[in-house]
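Database export, one record per block. Field names are fixed; values are copied verbatim from the stored entry.
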Amino acid sequence: MNINDIQKWEREFSAKKGIAQDEEKATKIAVLKLVEEVGEACKAILEKKWEEIPAEVTDVIVFACKVANIAEDFHGTEKLEQVMKKKLEYCETRTYNPEINKMDKPENREFN
């Protein structure tokens, strides 16, 4: 399964279930659910319930894809898969400084 498959599934699931197809409602649902799912993943980590992490991370990925779908569908943004490829290539150019426990920020107009 790849990111396009997840985005396609999310679009089909939302349409099939009648989940907020207009931008404003879809955005509210997507952002609130994304934050909720991140919170559930954090809670599982804090409680050391590692067996719950894969399911919680899956929920985070699905709702992050829903947000990307909204950007693509309503605002014509670049496809998530294309941005991910470029972002990962950018990350490969970064170096880690162990003295300050941070990655450097090379000049890149696309990623801040």
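Remark 1: The first helix runs from residue 3 to 17.
Remark 2: The chain has a mean pLDDT of 94.
End of record.
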